[in-house]
Amino acid sequence: MGREAMERIYERVNEAVEAQNFLTTIGAKLEQAEKGRVVLSCKNRDDLTQQNGFLHGGVTAALAEVACGSAALTMAEEHHHILSAEFKMNLLRPVVCNQIQAEGTVLKAGRKLMITESVVTDPQTGKVLAKMTATMIPIADE
Predict the structure, then answer these.
(1) Would you say 97 and 128 are in contact if contact means Cβ atoms under 8 Å apart?
(2) Which CATH number fits the domain that encloses residue 125?
(3) What are phi and psi of 65, to 5 degrees?
(4) Does the global pTM surpass 0.85?
(5) What is the pLDDT of residues 59-105, one digit of tens each?
(6) How many structural domains are present in the chain?
(7) Helix (H) or strand (E) run with residue 64 in it
(8) pLDDT tens for residues 5-28?
């Protein structure tokens, strides 16, 4: 895949990420995007924690789900967007690190369903914090 195609993938995913107001609210950022794979990050902030001071599981799940959907978007035809059909989340440990990173990958890209996964880690230690598997649906733009 050429440089121009790789740049288009990044631009397409970044446009989708920036269009999601919730991601702006939590401070999520697209770090990398290539065919079948994306990496997103989010800093841990006091206003994103739950009652015990851990990053809220909903923030972790949201970043993981967007990583899955964004990875699927890299494999979708032009003029399609992605919707989640279902996902399963395993929160493996409390998040107390300064930042989390979610790497989303496509396991199987079909025309009607895409099977994806994401792994959420502490980028400083490499510890796995959470895992998600998700089914995504590509939908033609109207």
Answers:
(1) no
(2) 3.10.129.10
(3) -65, -40
(4) yes
(5) 999 999 999 999 999 999 999 999 999 999 999 999 999 999 999 99
(6) 1
(7) helix 57-73
(8) 889 999 999 999 999 999 999 999
Say which residue, 66 or 1, is predicted with more confidence.
66
Token pair recorded at residue 105: 């990958």
Which domain range does residue 128 map to? 3-140
**Closest to 63 in 3D by CA, of 92, 104, 21:** 104
| Token pair in block for residue 129 | 């914090």
Extended beta strands in the chain, E state = 29-34, 37-43, 80-91, 99-109, 114-121, 128-140
**What pairing do the DSSP bridges indicate for beta strands 128-140 and 114-121?**
antiparallel
As a whole number of angstroms, the distance between CA 58 and CA 63 comes to: 9
